[in-house]
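User:
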Amino acid sequence: MNRRDAAPLAIAVMLSLAIRLAPALYRGDIIFDGYDEYYHLRRIFYTFHHFPHTLWFDSYINYPHGLEISWPPLFDIAVAALAHVAAPLIGEGSVETVAAVISPILGGILVVVVYAIAKEVFDGRTALISALLLAVCPYSVIRTSFGSPDHHSLEVLLFSLIVLLLLYTLRGGYIWSIFAGIGMAALAYTWAGAPIYLLIIPSFAVLRAVLSLREGSAFDYRPLLMSLAVASALVLPFGFSSWLHISFLAILIITATVLVTAIAQQLALRKNLPWIVLPASLTAFALIIILINHSRLQSAMVYLIGGGMTGKIAEAEPLFVNTDPFTPLTLWLLLYILGAALLLHEAITGGVKRDARLLLLIWAVLALALTFGQKRFIYVSSTVGPILMALLLIRAIIWIRSYPSRRFIAGAALAIMIALPIMDLPGIVSSEPAITQDWVESLEWLRNSTPQTGHFEEPFQIPEYGVMCWWDYGNWIVYIGERPVVANNFQTGVVEGSRFFLSEEEESAVRILNDRRARYVITDLTMIYGKLQAICSWLGEDPSTYQMIDAKDGVMTVHNLERLNRTILAGLHLDDCSYMEHFRLIHESRSFAGPYGEKPAAMIKIFEYVPGAIIRGRANDDRIIVAVLTLSSNLGRPFQYVNYAVPRNGSYEIRVPYSTEGAYGIKAAGPYQVVEITPATDGSGAVAFVNITEEDVMEGGIVELGPPVSTVPEP
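Assistant: Predicted structure:
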């Protein structure tokens, strides 16, 4: 870097940090964004207290079976190590503070790396524009903003650093090969998907060999092989572990591919064979690898670019599934593609930096393919994208200078080209965390008001009970609520969760809870009005059989169909457990919402699974016995619990989950009213009053009902 570039680059880095740290100014307390971030925090805390050991098994997820943690640990260990360094300066809050700022810092370093890549491939002017465009790129900010402690920020930095070091390797010098190999190993220790990124190496090796043979020359593969040898050696100590073996195997296969390519190139040159022989032979080699790993590769391709998670995981869907194509992102991608086309042209035309351009082009194509396959990979495209757009911008400026009469029009077009792609930036910077205050308050209540479970800090033994939830919220519950969960963001327990919430019979739902030893259930209103399609998708159910959505005059009306009303999900969240025997509301959040035309409900509700007390009495078989209890929630909202029974042989039993003593802040307005109804006359008869103790509810006690004390007049 020359001195002239230092100041502009420093400005780009400071701008990057300012944008990515901006959420800290208006959020106040540290509130972390996302979902996986909360499990990173759990693992970071464990590593901090047991440094350098990290968490490899957690009994608090996939309860009661627990789960082996398959995340490579480098990010979590690095954050824990930095927290130890910072602890003498900032005290007890060092872990959360470091975790909150680490991604913006890595984002600032990424700006420097992208500058260096563009400088190596093009020139200083293109490099500075690339750095500035990355600093303000909204799709990079998403993964590197304040409060986002996720390995993706380190992953994309390491990937970019590998590209830079490979560019230096192409220039010459084995020292860069060694550093590139270290970077590859570090990437494998950071993300299980590292092999996806390392595909740029065999892709470059094959294309470069084909070009060499067409020109009658030979490409020196020794520096690349040196990098791969270093990477193989560094991952070997853990190469057969469950969390690293795929990356280890991939590095070995990539090494073999490059080696075969080098040998094939030499044989083709010695035998003076046509250049087409090399791609044909390598294609045959690739087919053998594919046949050996057919099932694994097929499932991976369906997952990555085949839409295998469509309707199940929003961020893993193809880019424009359930997404408006007419957004600034579309224009950004259009500029990306135009820049890649220009780069292809310059790589084909040759020059002293053809190899560097070819490697950059392969990176750009891989990133774009991943992004179209799964929208989450936009953060990978957002790293190489600024370089492509800087190239496009520089070439456009040169073109404009050739046509002075059109400078105004061209200048306006350039301004639009620069401004439109960053239109998403204000919304992204000011966006609220995925977790709402209702969730934070509800989970703090769960932690403080329900029986504590053991082994939270040493999660190797099975805790006392678990919590049933939709998988989106599992990591939040573990980290903030400090309770085990059946389902979490690793998609563990997701099928059981779907079956539970869509069960239309309480007995089947109870069987699932008993099997999973869950005592509490947490629901979110968005599970009904927003996430219902995903819940249905995991079971192959048609969402239209549960809800009908009308959109007229800009107003969306949601009609819950009878099938949804029969589900446990609706019975819990919308009906406060009426007609249920084993579930009772114990807490609801402060915010209420609902679709147009529907009665609002609390956003978050917590329920307890209980044996339930049995009200036993005698009545004629031609009657229906209805038990009614008027209650108020922890917020003072009045609601009624209703259940009924039909007498058989002159007796009946009604199982009820609420006590008249109240629990967890839920209060009863009085005793149960047990009313006899005669269907033949559509009239109500005798009514009896009965109190149910908390002990009866928790132990399945039987309360014998005496004779009625009053009579309700016929309507």
